[in-house]
């Protein structure tokens, strides 16, 4: 495993982990969600499935999160997460281990970023794995309508990190949601013709199963929807072994 720090388009440091396979059968990028980090349990679990399937695996911390990259969580937006994904992928093209098409996997906000990139550059992506996906800003606002209404009225929302317990509470400004509302996977879902898997917990109230069913219906190609019983939005704890097995089996069934 190698850890490097690279620069994004804003000259900020991005922490990147590369787990290079000596004879890779593929290349996979795994992206965390809002306020998360590259070593979080569900990200590690998905990365392990790709490693065990003989892929080179890349994980990274976006800026404005709780990992090792620069920034401030209070400034986190879907746009900055997406731009950091683009910048990591651009940097990767200059590395010896790079190959196309590659596999993209993302959790929550990382899922919508992965999906948006794939819609923009479908020929670059061999397959797409979306975990607890934010399908659209509009749907995520509707899922917690009363909280969002209060957030808009106050101008900020206090956020407690579930990925790093003990982290001080963060004031996330309303501008985060204004930015998120710009993004939606549904209008261009027809471009996701590659194999796509959607994985969600049945107890996920943030990005519920019904959102994934909407996206699933809109997908035109080979697709799979897996619902983990007892799984929360973070797919933590007891959900992790099933998450691993689902990912490993899906990877094994991808075309060469």
Automatic annotation (TrEMBL):
Family matches, as Pfam families: Hydrolase_4
Annotated coiled-coil segments of the chain: none
Domain (Serine aminopeptidase S33) ranges: 23-151
Gene3D superfamilies, A to Z: alpha/beta hydrolase
Protein name listed in UniProt: Serine aminopeptidase S33 domain-containing protein
Domain of life per record: Bacteria
